Hints:
Blueprint: H1 2-16, H2 18-22, H3 25-28, H4 30-39, E1 47-51, H5 57-62, E2 68-73, H6 76-88, E3 94-98, E4 111-117, H7 126-135, E5 137-149, H8 154-167, H9 177-186, E6 189-202, H10 203-210, H11 214-226, E7 238-240, E8 243-257
Parallel strand pairs: 1-2, 1-4, 2-3, 4-5
Antiparallel strand pairs: 5-8, 6-8, 7-8
Helix pairs in contact: 8-11
Amino acid sequence: MADTYSKKIAVEQFGRRSNAYAACGTLMDQTDLDTVVGLLDLKGNETVLDVATGTGYLAMALAPHVKQVIGIDITLGMLELAVQAERERGLGNIENLVGDVEHLPFCDSQFDVVAARFSFHHFPRPLVSLSEMARVLRPGGRLVIEDMVSSEDNAKSEYQNTMENLRDLSHIKHHPASELEQMIQKAGLEVVNKAGGGSDFDLEHWLEMAEPSAVNVETVRGMMKDSMEGDKAGLNVRVEEGRVVFTYATAIVVGRRVLRDYNQPQ
């Protein structure tokens, strides 16, 4: 029931704020998108599944380099924006449909590449999601996950995730990079490539994107300012030109499905 509630919250949140997320600079960052595409070493004949495709930025970045991209998301409002943007760019090899990462409506071993960008922290059962993504990935195929990651320090990770949950009820957890890699390996994939980076955010804009309650806004503002001493959140919160800003650490991890049954005991 908790998982169902989390998904319902996500649908409501992203449906209501789809335009705000569509305008997010981090999601639109072409340099970052090019990095993801480059790590996949694409040949041009791949069929790709973009999980939690949102407004389709990764799908559109991949489309010129592959045979077909299928984008799937639980939020219809986000997909409508993706379809509009894809039509404007004249991309005819992208298909979008509503669906849940935990119950992908595809055959085993159907895709050469499965991707999820900046969405993994919304998955209520990450190992279940990864196992399902591995199921539809052909042996030898590649899974790429990009997401914001939290500090390897447990206290800092918990501090950050507490703020995240107050800001956005659909947030589940920003995982440390090492934990993300371990989960990918548990799903039956070997890590073959990875990259790290960072993305700066203005605190007020970040809060506005998610529209939390007024009480939660004030709580998060206070926690962000308190975190400056000793970097309690691992976010390098600071004041620049009168604005409170912080930096998300990001990780891109590429896994390859090993040549055995995906659910075989590890």
